[in-house]
Structure formats: structure tokens, C-alpha cells
Design a protein that fits this description.
By secondary structure, the protein is α+β, with helices and mostly antiparallel strands. The protein contains 2 helices and 2 strands; from the N terminus they run ββαα. Strand 1 and strand 2 form a beta hairpin. The longest helix has 26 residues.
Amino acid sequence: MVLPRHNRVAVYHNNRDLRLETWPLPLVREGELLLEVHASGICGSDVHGFDDALMYAATNQYLEARRESHKLLRARGVFVDDCLSDELPAAITSRYLAIKRAGLL
């Protein structure tokens, strides 16, 4: 079995900041075991009730799906500007000017 070189890990920074990051896969030595975790619970002290836990899980799932969608769109040549609504006019203008400068119009 060929192991990947990197894996996705959830890194706890504080109660409101748990990030999914890519880390190098650790070296497995003799007498050690490498496990792949498919699911894990969240400590009750990290969230304040079931509603917070659901919101937390849903937000992380949404953000990961959004990143993957942007990645797929960009791979197909679609211009993606990920910005807040109040930043959209400037982002569209900047993107248009960049496309025009590059001679892609």
C-alpha cells in the first residue's frame, strides 16, 4: 500500500479557531502504528451546547466544499474572485482590467 505524503489535520488554535490544515505524514517507525481517523468528537468545553457543535461542523463542511468548488472552477479556466459583497465592484473591475491587459478579451 502506498501512503500519501501529506494528510489533512484539524489544528486547535483556540475555542473559536479550529483549522483544517495539510501536514506532512509522520514517519512510522518500528513498533508504531499509523491510524486514519474518519470521525472524531468535539469536547463539550470547546463548544457551548449542541447548537454550537452543529454550527461548527456545518461551517467547516461548507468552507471545505467551497474551497473544493473554487479549485475545480479554476482548473476549468473560470475566473473566481472570493470576496465580500462590498468588495465585489472593485474585484470585478480589477479582474476585468487584468483580463484586458493580458489580451484575453
